[in-house]
Fold ATP-dependent protease.
Amino acid sequence: MSLAVTLSRAQEGVAAPQVMVEVHLSGGLPGTNIVGLPEAAVREARDRVRVAIQNTSFEYPNRKVTVNLAPAELPKDGGRFDLAIALGILAAGGQVPREKLDDCEFLGELALSGALRGVSGVLPALLRARARGRRVVVPRANAAEAALVSDADVLVADTLAEVCGWLRGAQDLGLPTDPPPPGIDGIGPDLADVRGQLQARRALEIAATGGHHLLLSGPPGTGKTMLAERLPGILPPLTESEALETCAVLSVAGQTVDPQHWRRRPFRAPHHTASAVALVGGGAVPRPGEISLAHNGVLFLDELPEFGRHVLDVLREPMESGHIVVSRAARQSTFPAQFQLVAAMNPCPCGYAGDPRHSCQCTPDQVQRYRARISGPLLDRIDLGVQVLRVPLGELGAPPSVHDEDSATVRARVVKARQHALMRAGRPNAEISTRELERDCALGPAERRWFDAALERLGLSARAYHRTLRVARTIADLDGGAALLDRTHLAEALTYRRF
Ligand SMILES: Nc1ncnc2c1ncn2[C@@H]1O[C@H](COP(=O)(O)OP(=O)(O)OP(=O)(O)O)[C@@H](O)[C@H]1O
Ligand SMILES: [Mg+2]
């Protein structure tokens, strides 16, 4: 029979749908045709595969070769199907045996020499193949990424010749080496470097515990960027499945996953000149943007008002839903985007409004226009706002005081306090629904009266009401997880609404 089928996987968002490569050899004019909605890069596989087969000392069939990539409606691009196509052609011509092809998937681009090149999106493909109980052969360039998926049946190859040798039973293929044990201490900047800034440190700890979005505002050089960069170091470590989700986004973006640090939460800090597409994702072949690369981690927007207003507005929807749908012509891809936003800004264009030691040069009108660049709906989604004021110079040079705790100490408290929220709702407090909020943020009658009066006095919106309660819940969790919120929790939460 001159028909053979091999298996591979396409890339669609962070999904990896199966693709069947059907190869048929028939009489008629020699030539090769690839059908099944291939994009340009896949059509070019025709030439790559022919030369690679010839350079691997096999014969390219001198017949009519039809390659069908099914399902046809699934868009396909890149060189990821090269290996599966080459093996299909060789199997259809009887040059390699078919037995092992049925329960094995193949990923990899071919060089003209027959060497295998790495492809993007290997991680999601492996997760799907593992669920189906299938073995996967991947190029050596993807071995480190493949090693992250525990219990996956993965073999690593350098060339087409090796894979053919393995199919014939003439040789074994390599295994991916195990990843180093996940370590998270000692990576990235540590909170011990920050002097003073007790209120900002406290806000950072609350943000880490509840997963709340945070806005740091203050004059230049007070340590806002420094503090923000230290948030990932105090967040609870990623679980294995969270880490795999985050790495899957990196993988489909074609970026290398660092096997040493793959359990650390991502920290993405796009520059303020970034376009909306760079931020949320897009392109002819939809690629994830910064908000998806920050999935399960931190998105840091430094100099918030300098970002284009429409760029910031596209953040509103994923901030609520935790994912983003990128539509381009006929294609639509969904990427996860459960990120924690940390933003930093100066209070005015010159940066010194409110600074006791510098006079501000800005007119009230300039200050107002500067702040208006950030839309109200975006600010409304930020739970914690904190003023970062100047630390006295003497304190900067002094040795660390007892208040200058390191990241590991703070993280231990965060992990413990977050446990209360996970036990109650299974999620950090920033993500609980309004109904769960009513259930979990019970107030006694006196506290309720006090809280209502305080909100009235501060003129806060209904959304701000819920956000303040969520923060108060997190503060109570840090305070031992009491079921009833008391006035100190509420009062502290209200101090973070002044922005
Ligand atoms: N609280 C602090 N403890 C230790 N060093 C600090 C502190 N604040 C500022 N510094 C020093 O000042 C430098 C600048 O801090 P950073 O970049 O975080 O300021 P910033 O608030 O982000 O300023 P800008 O508004 O200009 O962006 C830091 O690299 C650090 O050396
Ligand atoms: Mg800064």
User: Anything to note?
Assistant: The chain has three domains: 3-167, 191-416, 432-499.
